[in-house]
Amino acid sequence: MSYVASGGEFNRDTNYITTRITADGRDGYPVESGRYRLVVARACPWANRTIIVRRLLGLEDTLSIGFCGPTHDQDSWTFDLDPGGVDPVLKIPRLKDAYLRRFPDYPKGITVPAIVDVGTGEVVTNDFAQMTLDFSTEWTEFHREGAPQLYPEPLRDEIDEVAQRIYTEVNNGVYRCGFAGSQESYEKAYDRLFTALDWLSDRLRNQRYLVGDTITEADVRLFTTLARFDPVYHGHFKCNRNKLSESPVLWAYARDLFQTPGFGDTTDFVQIKQHYYIVHSDINPTQIVPKGPDLANWLTPHGREALGGKPFGDGTPPGPTREGERVPADHSAG
Question: Where is this region: Disordered (predicted)?
């Protein structure tokens, strides 16, 4: 399967299944405890967002989670981590099965994260950007006591504005570098990416979080790209002006989040590296997965507490990661 853009510049297809699960059920899918299953892959940055937000808000008892393996074929993400390669709740071996159950002629790529209606086995949505916002705003009945306000109403316009730039220039910017099909498009993408990272460094130099003085949706969206930067994007995607660990402000910021419950404990560095270096065989034909980088430095002091702010505002950290949802110790920096 080819990932490099034959025309030069990589353009992501953003036409997702936009059905929403809401408190009033206006799209036919009301929020209900136990009705839906969130299907993710720890390797995927878009899916990693949903894992973080679900954990921060305490939705584990309400919304079950299924983990695909770190690699996929041209056809689908698969449940190869589960016994027999079958999801224990949905009883399917491939995520594609849930897509086809709702859309028999589904013409597009099978993506994670996806939410599946357990009763019908049909995919409801794969619109990752809206998904986490709805967790914050539509699923409030099931939030844990002390859940943080990740999308507080007074800050939504600013969060949206910052998140949009993070998406176009950073989250997608690294892919624009990695999947570029010409030298010219790569260099243009590279310049855009590092212009944005410099902007973020300036923004975070004197404030602990991106918007306001607590963690918000904007921080979640930036974190999943930063966590993958040195293990994958710096080398594999040629985003190599400098490593994250050589960017003092962003490196301290990323470590601050990593050491916050919900962030580092949902990050699986082994699966992250396996995914990119094995799946993108047109970029890495040998499919050899690099051994480094050393991860111990993720746990070093970051000093960002001096900027003030409280990670969870008036709320509290989430409790320990649930049994069966923990990242293996040898896959993390722990």
Answer: 303-334
Instruction: Tell me if the domain spanning 153-331 has CATH number 3.20.20.70.
Output: no
DSSP state of 326: P
Q: In this predicted structure, what is the pLDDT of residue 14?
A: 67
Predicted local distance difference test score (pLDDT) of residue 8: 66
User: Residues annotated in the binding site, as ranges?
Assistant: 77
Alpha helices in the chain (DSSP H): 45-57, 96-102, 128-137, 156-165, 173-178, 183-204, 217-228, 248-258, 269-279
d(CA 55, CA 316): 12
> Does residue 68 carry a catalytic annotation?
no
Q: Which of 29, 36, 44, 151 is catalytic?
A: 44
Catalytic residue (one of 175, 190, 233, 253): 175
Q: What is the pTM for the complete model shown?
A: 0.96
Contact, 3 vs 282, CB < 8 A?
yes
CB 120 within 8 Å of CB 127: no
Tokens at residue 97, please? 């099965």
Instruction: With a cut of 80, say whether residue 235 has pLDDT above it.
Output: yes
Q: Is 239 a catalytic residue?
A: no
Q: What pLDDT does 51 receive? A: 98
Do the Cβ atoms of 43 and 272 come closer than 8 Å? yes
Q: Taking the domains of the chain in order of start, what are their residue ranges?
A: 36-142, 153-331
pLDDT tens-digit map of 251-298: 999 999 999 999 999 999 999 999 999 999 999 999 999 999 998 899
Strand pairing class (36-41; 114-117): antiparallel
Q: Which residues are annotated as a binding site for glutathione?
A: 77
Q: Domain 36-142 has what CATH class? A: alpha beta
